[in-house]
Each structure stands twice: as C-alpha cells, then as structure tokens.
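Hi support team,

I submitted a single chain yesterday and got back a structure, but I'm not sure I'm reading the token output correctly. Could someone confirm the output below corresponds to the sequence I sent? I've pasted both exactly as they appear in my results page.

Thanks,
R.
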Amino acid sequence: MNDMKKIVAIGPESTGKSTLCSLLASHYNTSWCPEYARSYLLSHGIAYNYDDLLTIARGQVALEEAYIENAKQQSRALPVLLFVDTDMYVMKVWCEYVYHKCHQYILDQITTRQYDLYLLCNPDLPWEPDVLREYPDEPARIELYGIYKKLLLNQNTPFIEIKGNYTERLQTAVNAVDNLIAHS
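Hi R., thanks for writing in. Yes, this is the structure output for that exact sequence:
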C-alpha cells in the first residue's frame, strides 16, 4: 500500500476548494496544503503578469513538498492523507485562460507530479466576492469548469465531481476518499 494519498481540489474560483480541503483535513485529522497564489498575491499585490504565474507555480510546488514532508513526519496512521488546494492543472488553466500560453515548467510538473484523486469543484455555490477573484460571471465560471473537466477526463488519475451545499460536498468527498483508501 502506498503510504501517502494526495487528494487535490481543483475548479474555478469561489467553488469551495479551500473550505473543502479544510473540512476534509479536519474530518481525517490531517493537514492540507493551501493555495500558494493567495499568499503571494496578498503580499506582492494583486496585479500580476505572466512571469508572476511561473513564480507562483514554483511556490505552489515548494509549499506542497513542505506539506508532504511534514505530513509524513506527523502522521502515525497509514495511509497518510494530504489534501491539496490547487495543483499545476490550475496553473495551466490560469496561464492559458489569461495569457493563451503556459510556462514549460508547469507542463513538466503536470507530467511528473502524482496524485491519487481529484475533487473537481462545481461552480454551483454562490459567488463570494474576494479581492483576488477575477471571474464572477456565471458563463466564465461554467466555461472554466468545462476546461477543468476536460483536463481530468484526459488524464489517468481518478476524479469525482463535487457539487451541492457544503454538507453535500463534504459527504461526496469523504465517500470518495474512503473508497480510495479501501481500494489501496
């Protein structure tokens, strides 16, 4: 059995990724890796350019690696679970949606980083304004969701769609994680 299971929440803005990761980490008494972009943009300013996205991607990978090592050190249970808010697919979509191109580093990381389950968060939650969020329009959110779903359909890691209210989202995710653990 693999001693660590990494579960990633992805999807458009304001779809409850951070909340879901936090709730799952609490449910399983483990940790979760936050999205690096949030802290980066809050400390460096919300105006960003294409090169900033490479810096953010590198920061996300480094942050995730630190959380992986910490989870391995802290956990006494097997498998060790780590919930990750955002991965390089999010960075790819962000680069391509805004700049119509993507850094090779991000593409390389997509092919080398391994995860065990994706939680694709549906944009059916009400939009919550935030200084860092850019796409409040429902058509853009639905378009982005479709982009994420297409990416997940064309890769090998299993994924499940997460929708409904926060209670329903958590229960769907817990069922998927329990199933992942049971079949490891």
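A quick pointer for reading it: The chain has seven helices and five strands. Let us know if anything else looks off.

Best,
Support desk
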